[in-house]
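Review form for a predicted model. The reviewer records the input and the model, then writes brief findings.
Reviewer: anonymous (R2)
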Amino acid sequence: MKKVQLITDGACVGNPGPGGWAAILRYGNHTREMFGFAPHTTNNRMELTAAIEGLRAIKEPCEVEVITDSEYLKNGITQWIHAWKRKKWLKSDKKPVLNSDLWRELDEEVTRHKTQWTWTRGHSLHEDNNRADELATAAAREQRASG
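Model under review:
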């Protein structure tokens, strides 16, 4: 199984507001940068979208280390999602899980791969995380400027 690194980030100008997401894929000497935007969204939705789009871009099952600076994303997919699925996408207070549409998409993408989730501090010394932040922020700002 190929080993791939996926570095993700999401950004918003205002929360909610115009948002951007970015994913960087690394396999051997190959690097692919991807990014996109949404006109009215939240930072958490952009974090989820970055992971979904990055995983979706991997065309065959791989061992994927997903590196994120979002504890919401990491904890959601590694811990909280199990209870959400058992409780039919309701939280303990019986209210619907926020962003359940994206959590379901992410859950589906994750099943195709062997994933490991790594958290890194945002805006620190992780070069790829900083690059993903630049791309996501630029996508969000460009969307704001054109809107």
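Findings: Residues 18 and 94 are 30 Å apart (CA to CA).
Further findings: The two ends are 43 Å apart (CA to CA).
Recommendation: see findings above.
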